[in-house]
Specification:
Elements: E1 2-9, H1 15-32, E2 40-47, H2 57-61, E3 71-75, E4 86-93, E5 106-107
Parallel strand pairs: 1-5, 2-3
Antiparallel strand pairs: 1-4, 2-4
Length: 120
Amino acid sequence: MRGIRGATTVTENTPEAIYKATIDLFQAIVTENNLAPEMISSVLTSVTSDIDAAFPAKPIRELADFEFVPIMGVMEIPVTGALAMCIRLMVNAEVGEVPQQDVVHVYLEGARVLRPDLAK
């Protein structure tokens, strides 16, 4: 079992922007780590306090074959100076014998600054 991290940002607090950013991030995590729905135990989504127009879990739940994956949403701790308009995912998945250092964490858009060592 491995935890696979990812983050992205949105430029506006609208359901459309939140859903698109979440799906782009989730699909990148799934693709980069060769995940199938049955490999995923759960997904934790979090948002910064400036994102409140929609739940990021919704578009993941609506993807074909992912409707039974447990997904939970939380709000990030409001730390002064933290990256704004940020959506984060923690995908817990059974990836077999993949070593921790070979897990591909995904950072997109403005969230690349969070982990420049891991962002592509």
